[in-house]
Amino acid sequence: MKKIYISMFALSALFFTACQEDFLDVNPTQAIPTTDVELYNSDSGAKTFVTAIYSKFLDWDMSSFGWIGLASITSDDADKGSSPGDGGTDKDVLDALSYNSSNPSAESTFVAQYDGINRCNQALTIIPKLDKADPALRQRLMGEAKFLRAFMYFTLVKCYGGVPIVDRLQNPTSEEDKKMLLTRKPVAEVYAFIEKDLADAIAVLPLKSAYSADEKERASKGAAYALLAKVSLYQKKWQQVVDNCNLITGYALNPSYAKMFRLEGENDIESMFEINGHGAVPTKGISGYSNVQGARGAGGWGWGFNTPSESLLNAYEAGDVRKDATIIFRNSTLYDGRVVPATVENAMYNFKAYSSSFTDAWETDANIKYLRYGEVLLMKAEALNELNQTSAAIPLLNEIRHRAGLGDTPATSQAAVRTAIWKERRVELAFEFDRFFDLVRTGQAKAAFAADKNEFFPNGRTFTEGKNELFPIPATFIIQANGMSQQNPGY
């Protein structure tokens, strides 16, 4: 039998060192040996390698506590929450924007992305060798792997700027591969790599409608176009944003904003890419995702971190249905009849992380919606406005407002429409891990953080320009790089 040997790496305390060899982690309780390609030379075997990539998004280090801290608690939409004396390891310093290069959340997020990227590279290495699997299926699976790799590199470049581009499984004895693993590439090169992966994915991925009902969560052509549009948005490639948004078909706004974030709204008409959580055994939910954000204290069901800020609360216009769909209020009754008593510690909690069926479970059925059609409309509106096509941007903005129960925007000038779009992004996408990065890419961060005042930050928070646009590269990586990579400014 033909053999294939894989040396897995994990970004661990020593970074890019060998981990357990010849095993592919599928979930915390299952490992699959990959020493013999013939064991996986079938349709089901081929799927295993891509399923392992999706499963990474269920992990604590990928989508839960550290990521919530890094990408949400740092923003002006959220406060640390919990009890005043509970820092959540580092959630207090993230809230204060006072983190350094030893920050655990910055490190765990960095490590998790590369663990996922390694799984993508395994899939892209092994699947072409599975000649007994259906050729069309193999092409689709490779497209999914490239979409997921692009998604993870987009997270990395937003968080850290230039990062190593690891595009293959490494040879532990190769000096060239060591340089690949430890050398940060320029931001433009990382974006080009992402764009190439997405172009390859688009060429082979099917439309969402072509998937069976039990595969709706898989990456589709529409998801790849949406991610490519978002990648272009961050680079201010306005015409490319419009062009890619125009290629997206088969989606629409869910008439009910609130129901989108309930079990009935999973993978709905608006959903383009989301991470699926399943509370039932043996399928898995996102480890701790709902619990760490659940109401804390007497009558509560969680740790109480990542609570909505007064700044976010005040951003909603009167009558905006998105407010009550996004925020759980103390001393209220939820849609399923659950009472949130006056005895819970925090005044507000994240409703989008709530699970009705598995409320206090560690693994719930709550999903994370990362790409949806509502954002496509806002991206296209923003790009059209920047291309001096403001009159074409306004109707798209109004579609979003009308779904929220609001009237037409009063904005008419390019500058006013720009501000209106930014505000709609905030209230439309709250707690969907966009706000911090939106503030950075649009140049609003310094002013927004200064205005974000509460009892812990009566004078707002200080966003240091030239530093806080990026998170620190983990100090352990910089040490391991031994001069091949440098730290981000200010750390």
Question: What descriptive keywords fit this protein?
Answer:
two-stranded antiparallel sheet, disordered N terminus, mainly alpha, 491 residues, 18 helices, 42% helix, two-stranded antiparallel ribbon, 8% strand, 12 strands
Low-confidence stretches: 1-32
Given helix and strand content, the structural type is mainly alpha
Specify the number of helices.
Answer: 18
Coarse morphology: globular
Ends: how far apart? Answer: 51 Å
DSSP strand content = 5-15%
Q: Main β-sheet: number of strands, strand sense, barrel status?
A: 2 strands, antiparallel
Number of strands: 12
Q: What is the N-to-C order of secondary-structure elements (H for helix, E for strand)? A: EEEEHHHEHHHHHHHEEHHEEEEEHHHHHH
Integer-rounded radius of gyration? 22 Å
Strand order of the largest sheet: 1-2
Mean pLDDT across every amino acid position: 92
* Helix-residue proportion: 40-55%
Q: Can you put this structure into words, describing what you see?
A:
It is a single chain. The protein has helices spanning 43-56, 60-63, 65-73, 91-95, 104-126, 135-160, 175-182, 187-204, 221-234, 238-246, 310-315, 322-326, 373-386, 390-403, 414-428, 435-441, 445-451, 475-481; strands at 9-10, 17-18, 23-27, 30-33, 78-81, 271-275, 305-308, 327-329, 332-333, 339-340, 348-350, 368-372. It is mainly alpha-helical. The strands form 6 sheets. Strands 1-2 form a two-stranded antiparallel ribbon. The chain has a two-stranded antiparallel sheet with strand order 3-4. The chain has a two-stranded antiparallel ribbon with strand order 5-7. β3 and β4 (30-33) form a beta hairpin. α13 runs antiparallel to α14 (390-403). The longest helix is centred in the N-terminal third of the chain and has 26 residues, at 135-160. The protein is globular and about 60 Å long. The model is unreliable at 1-32 (pLDDT under 50).
